[in-house]
Amino acid sequence: MNLIIVPLLILKISLVSSIVFSVPHQLASLFKMEEQLVDRLNMATEFYKSKTLDLYLQTCEPRFKQLPAFSDLEQVDESEYLSKVLVDLVGNPIHVYSLMDRLVMQLPVVRKELEEHLGNDNITESIRTLVEEIEMPEEMDFEGVTQALARIQFAYRLDPVQLAGGKIKDTQTEGRLSVKQMMNIAERRLSGAQPMRPAIGKEYALAIEWAEGALSLVESIEDDKHTEKSITRFLQRARLEHNNNWRSPLGQRGNFPNEEFFVRRIENNPELTTGKDLRSEEKIFLGEETENGPLKQGYNIHDFYSLCRGEKVRHSHAPSNPMCRLTTKDNPYFFLAPLKLEILSEQPLLHLYHEVLTDGEIDVMTTRILSQLKAATVQDAGVSNGGGAKVSNERTQSSGWIWDQEDDLLYKLSKKTGKFAEMETTRPEEEMAPGVDWRFVESEAWQMGLYGPGGHYLPHFDAFDINLMPPDVWSTNGLWVGSRIATVMFYLSDLVGGRTAFPKMGLAATPRKGTAVFWYNLHRNGNRDDLSLHGACPTALGIKWVSNKWIREGSQIWKMPCARNDS
């Protein structure tokens, strides 16, 4: 997995209020801070003995096996080390979950004990200084990473026991989850207090899968009858609630089974049916069931997650044979270096351009945005003028904006984008001069997105709802800018998971560093293309950098003239 060198700027991000778990660079800063924290806690063990303190230090061990502390490494500068933190620790959902568990749940107890027994000595004062100088995670962050781990397990059909042992898909890591941590995930999913996505309630099925995994670990590894009885009682309650509230999936393919319900009720005669058994039955059911009911979220969740896993779905716009070719687009710009085009679909158009970005372009984009990253939002339909935004677990990433005027290389990249998209994407050169107000007409500024572990964006449209057009569809001087006619999404990193899935096309694009995916959001008559619905699959391992260039319709009048009829 390629490293992206990250400058020391990540430690200088201003401490603004945000959702820490969805901002990878803030997580990197927390991992770095914890190294100093652990040094102080180890010093405290010389004066004070405590099970709570020992547990904190014990749960830190996997992260240091994955990546030793900076002070223990030789011939590694800090920028290179922080890049490793992003990939090896921040990019691992198990390590991030454990970090949030320690900082949100364990550390307050440890600090209270130390202050009671050591008073305001140098150790407690230095710990206080450390945590006050950085934005610390809160309960909502712990819930966020809990959802992220459960989302990865559900989306990619992973075994909770293997996850607890550090295995993420086909990669073995040093991350570890304790029985207590697995049960925390199970309890939060059963509570229904914060469902993982809209339109669902208590996630009985997920809770049962995680609790059954915890029980198997207790039975095989730990000789703890009290914990075993406690988990057994939890499972009895969860199974009863599941069966009492169960919704049949017959005629409901696309909605059920899901995070809430298995394919059928749980039976205990002649022997107990486990969640793993029922998920296996689910695969058979989904392969045979054909009837779809009204889709609760406007798309088929089974198709979406199948595409995330790289599986084929029944209805696909993929060509019968793979289609890859070199093309110049009849543009002299590409005569010496033709584009490497992969056609995912011809109608509607969905194209992948491989190796279209240089490392230099990637470096400029990722370094310029660092200080601006914050938790991303979705459009708030409750605001009538279309300009509202809200933070939602429908989208868990950090984002920010950079403009062509900020670097000549960005302006050149916008021009290159317009050439292979065959659309207008840049302002006239005279508007690039210093002192000229920055504004977008042909296309928007670059939206940079960074997904951490479990980061995702449920299926959505890039084009605006005709009833919720934002104010910027018109420029300040009354020029029609229009909606987002097309999207060019650049992938800036390699990772595991994180595909861009189009559930209504039955297709998905796989992220590869330097690749761009291109599609239209509007028909030629200006109506939104329903097939352009797409979502970001959960990032399983690694971090996912993307950059969106949204092209507006108003300036495409000569490139994309309106059609009289449009199917």
Helix count equals 14
Structural class: alpha+beta
- Percent of residues in helices: 25-40%
**Unreliable residue stretches:** 1-18
Large-scale geometry: globular
Tell me the number of strands.
Answer: 19
The proportion of residues in beta strands is 5-15%
The CA-CA distance between the termini, in Å, is 43 Å
> What strand order characterises the main sheet?
3-4-5-16-12-19-10-9-6
Mean residue pLDDT: 91
Question: Main sheet, how many strands, which sense, barrel?
Answer: 9 strands, antiparallel
Task: Characterise this structure.
There is one protein chain. With 567 residues, the protein is an alpha+beta fold. 37% of the residues lie in helices and 14% in strands. A 9-stranded antiparallel sheet has the order 3-4-5-16-12-19-10-9-6, with helices on one face. The two termini are 43 Å apart.
